[in-house]
Amino acid sequence: MKELKLRYGCNPHQAPARIFSEHELPITVLNGAPGYINLCDAFNAWQLVQELRQVTGIPAAASFKHVSPAGAALGLPITDPVLAKSLFVDDMKLTPVAAAYARARGADMMSSFGDFAAVSDTLDAATALILKREVSDGVIAPDFTPEAVEILKQKKGGKYTIIKIDPEYKPPVMEQREIYGITFEQRRNDLIAGKEHLATIVTKNKTLSEAMARDILLAMITVKYTQSNSVCYAYDGQIIGVGAGQQSRIHCNRLAAAKADKWFLRQHPSVIGMQFRQGISRAERNNAIDSYLETSLSPKEEEFWRANFAVVPAMLTEAEKRTWLDAKKGVALASDAFFPFRDNIDRASRSGVSAIIQPGGSLRDEDVIAACDEYGMTMMFSKVRLFHH
Fold first, then answer.
1. Which among 31, 38, 229, 253 is annotated as catalytic?
2. If DSSP codes are grouped into helix, strand and coil, which group holds residue 371?
3. Is domain 3-170 classified as CATH 3.30.230.10?
4. What are the boundaries of each domain within the chain?
5. Residues of the chain with pLDDT > 90: what percent?
6. What is the pTM of this model?
7. Each residue's pLDDT tens digit, 69-81
8. In a 10 Å sphere around its CB, with 0-12 CB exposed, 13-18 middle and 19+ buried, how is residue 213 labelled?
9. FRET pair for 284, CA 20 to 30 Å: which of 85, 126, 179, 201?
10. Catalytic-residue membership of 13
């Protein structure tokens, strides 16, 4: 097959639409009918998880929305019961692939609502059971167990999109796209992040544990497939905050940091101990938790709360939140371009960042390095910019 007709393009009024290739398409649609944005997500997500698998040797997963990752993760065991509960998988037995997707989706559950998922390895029944009960548009993987396919075919009235991709497919070195009737051509971004990019440590603190090096590479690879400008925070083998598509670097950083803060706060005893009324959906529970972690609630939000909780917990004060977050350390940060001012370092310090990778090359590099030294951070210059559009 060299062509696949789509329902429509980015929007329903943009029809007809298709994907096509001079050669055979590397995908087989096992179920459903993917749309234009579905496939933009699928192909970007697949590249991300395939690269993570190649670099780390660990199964990987990603949760994509509108051509940026809401989350990405490695399939490390989830042994902490608090983490499992915060990810809504405390009632499940997880394989490495299932753990990777649970972590990836759990990075930002609000943004993962209606995601397109990707996994680097054969998608098994354990992973399919997570997908089955979440709101998701589709999934791409190099293979599926028969049981997993049957489970996923039960989603969305039998219309859930299941795409199998050839893991041996290699795209051409040159890539093209068209904007306003004009064809753009460039070499595809085939740079693979590796330990060589971690070699130039520019701060006084040269400490870089094996786990931190892994998380730095995870963040760097994820930022490569995030719409620019972008910043990613990683911790314990998973992305915990993504700031994508902002025009200002500090806004990327603030967005990613705020999401990382919420990820940590979701594990606060006040959140873990919440009691919900029977029949409340997983998405509604997640929305309620997100509202709870905001600074204040409007009267309407309080009304929603009382309707959705069996017990309405006392609001966390800003001081309580700060105390909880101040205890968190060991977060890795990757930026797709240099930090022009130290304000990014100051903000990162409040969200547990201990190590940073960025290209370097700013006129104020020395100011940024000095800021890292003040906080005792380790910072590397990768010397590689990773804009993605």
1. 229
2. helix
3. no
4. 3-170, 189-265+328-381, 269-315
5. 83
6. 0.95
7. 999 999 999 999 9
8. middle
9. 126
10. no
